[in-house]
Design brief:
This protein has 443 residues and is of the alpha/beta class. The protein folds into three domains: 7-122, Probable tRNA modification gtpase trme, domain 1 (Gyrase A, domain 2); 128-209 and 381-424, tRNA modification GTPase MnmE domain 2 (Four Helix Bundle (Hemerythrin (Met), subunit A), Up-down Bundle); 217-370, P-loop containing nucleotide triphosphate hydrolases (Rossmann fold). 45% of the residues lie in helices and 18% in strands. It has 15 helices and twelve strands. Helix 7 packs antiparallel against helix 13 (381-399). The two termini are 18 Å apart.
């Protein structure tokens, strides 16, 4: 169990060696620890000052830029210090050795700086999760989505909905407690339910954008399927720009699912090369075919390759999916002829013909799926689950017309509670360990 009374420290920059290493400290002993390192008075707050870092014997470790951030105006809300030292392992280890000798100091655990920021009210859980996504972002669209999540705009939306629920409950309570008073009109409750219907519509519209946010955050899942030797593994290599899959002329070379993450025009896509689908007596290949069909049935987009000498046979009969696109492969192996209408396009990995067109096709498919969806959308299953709970409680309140107002008010209280669990305003202790474990040491 971590102690918030401890002063924590960690390397907050990238892997060593590096040009500069950033060491971060947070806690009640952060400033005394800094003074022990520089052997002098505390530098000006929130200003970078050049100081000499020395060990306990007064020997020089390094020259560094030091930045003190007094509480509460810091990332964690505690006294914080950042040291910018030269990024060698020897320098960083020497600084850590000095910090370890200071009473009340210890190395930080994964995500502990962010957890302290949450506990001190500097961020809520949505902002924390957005920050985690920003740290892990690999594509431009993931970065944009994470920035929206971590900026506080999504939290403000949920807080606004919670406030509307609280106001609605207050009006209902007023009608219950002061029904005989003239300053509580009989139509108050009717206005409340009109407003709750509008809120329900807003939540429903917000939830429709969830699938778009999931595609941006987790990537579009694409399955390459087809009979053996139609060019699935070769196409995977062409899309990734490197040899990630083994390619031979032997049918059945691919026997398991191979997944590769790619950045396509700012979007993350996960392309899965699968075993050739055919009738076989080989037990291992049968398992590969089974996995290929399962992967196709859960994919967002299925690219079904058919070479020039064959027509779709077992694959189209076996796979049950609506996002099934036919591609004609090995176009360099045949004489030019019109492309049949059932095919989206043709390509040749050998010559490169059609590969760029396929990339454009996939990007257009993603953008059509996303439509005009806002980046202000629930990107995590946890958010979606709580929003669905909120929607259901509001719906229950609306559909309980004729029942006691106290019961309908309780539905609204439960709705507000579900919203509060998204941002961390209400009882989320069991979630904290899971959420902060996503962070690296030093963040």
């Amino acid at each position: 169990m971590t102690k918030t009374s401890d002063t924590i420290y960690a390397l907050s920059s990238g892997a060593l060696p590096a040009g500069v290493a950033v060491i971060r400290l947070s806690g009640p002993q952060a400033f005394p620890m800094l003074q022990s390192l520089i052997k002098g008075p505390l530098p000006d707050s929130r200003k970078a000052s050049l100081r000499t870092i020395r060990n306990r014997n007064g020997l020089v470790i390094d020259q560094a830029l030091v930045l003190p951030f007094p509480a509460p105006h810091s990332f964690t809300g505690e006294d914080c210090v950042e040291l910018q030292v030269h990024g060698s392992r020897a320098v960083v280890n020497a600084v850590f050795e000095e910090l370890a000798g200071h009473e009340g100091g210890r190395p930080a655990e994964a995500g502990e700086f962010s957890q302290r920021a949450f506990e001190n009210g500097k961020m809520d859980l949505v902002e924390v999760e957005g920050l985690a996504d920003l740290l892990h972002a690999e594509t431009e669209m993931q970065r944009r989505l994470a920035v929206e999540q971590s900026s506080g705009k999504l939290s403000a939306l949920y807080d606004g909905w919670a406030d509307r629920l609280t106001r609605a409950r207050a009006f209902i309570e007023a009608e219950l407690d002061f029904a005989d008073e003239e300053d509580v009109p009989d139509s108050v409750a009717n206005q409340v339910w009109i407003q709750m219907k509008a809120l329900l519509d807003e939540i429903n519209n917000h939830l429709t954008a969830a699938s778009s946010a999931e595609i941006i955050r987790d990537g579009l899942k694409i399955a390459l399927v087809g009979e053996p030797n139609v060019g699935k593994s070769s196409l995977l290599n062409a899309l990734s720009g490197r040899d990630v899959a083994i390619v031979t002329d032997i049918a059945g070379t691919t026997r398991d699912v191979l997944n590769v993450d790619l950045n396509l025009g700012g979007y993350l896509i996960t392309v899965s090369d699968t075993a050739g689908i055919r009738e076989t007596a080989d037990a291992v290949e049968q398992e590969g075919v089974k996995r290929a069909v399962a992967k196709a049935e859960t994919a967002d987009l299925v690219l079904h390759l058919v070479d020039t000498d064959s027509i779709p046979k077992q694959t189209s009969l076996t796979i049950n999916t609506g996002n099934h696109v036919l591609l004609r492969s090995k176009s360099d192996k045949r004489c030019p002829s019109p492309l049949p209408s059932e095919f989206a396009l043709e390509l040749s990995v050998e010559s490169g013909h059609g590969v760029e067109k396929l990339k454009s096709f996939i990007r257009d498919y993603i953008e059509n799926r996303l439509g005009s969806a806002s980046m202000l959308a629930p990107a995590r299953q946890r958010h979606q689950k709580r929003l669905e709970e909120t929607r259901n409680y509001v719906s229950d309140a609306l559909q309980s017309e004729g029942q006691d107002l106290a019961i309908r008010s309780e539905y609204l209280r439960l709705a507000a509670s579900s919203l509060g669990r998204i941002t961390g305003r209400v009882d989320v202790e069991d979630l904290l360990g899971v959420i902060f474990s996503e962070f690296c040491i030093g963040k």
